[in-house]
Amino acid sequence: MLLDNGSSANFVTQSLCGKLGLSRRSVSSTVTGINSNSSHITQSCSLNIKSLHNDYSLTVDCLILPEITKALPSSFIDIQNIPLPMGISFADPSFNIPSAIDILVGAEVFWSVLCNNSIDLGKNQPKLYETKLGWLVSGHVARLKTPSSSPVCHFISEDSNPDLTRFWELDTVAAKHSLSPEERACEQSFLTNTVRSENGSFVVSMPLKDDPSVLGESFQMAKCRFLS
Q: Could you tell me which Gene3D superfamilies the record lists for this protein (predicted)?
């Protein structure tokens, strides 16, 4: 999981959403990132995040993406050269090993989990920040530069009013639709009771779910109100 105070929304990958069996909702949202690159999102879900070290948990609404970002950190970090204090619990115990990012939580969650305590490890060293999920490591880290390493920037803005050209995606009828019992009854009623007259017009019956008797004796009352 990645905490990103530059994001205005939360995200989860399609693969993790499928593994957890989360219920999905239809949405229409455009997400804009670095260099104004944008992605259109049509699904969202809710998931529960829990700390590894205490009882803290929270439920967040996430937009669903095929991929959030590349593995982070971009290369292995040798923590032997970092004077990490003993006895503290990291939110991610393997923060120095490149790992897939399946969840990104934005600024709203970031500031709600951040605590007051921090530890400065010195010049050219990262800083430690206490959160309700455990301690975070952030800042300068000395590591070997390799040709494959590249900087990563995360800045995400959500637009809840995407271009009108995107609306066709929501209006598209699914190739397969499972009819509900009520829909099947309507279809059967149409096939059974609808006929064509000699002049070509359709003759249909009044579609009722129950027997007309359940309406009661309301004719006289309706007639009196009409006349008055």
A: Acid Proteases
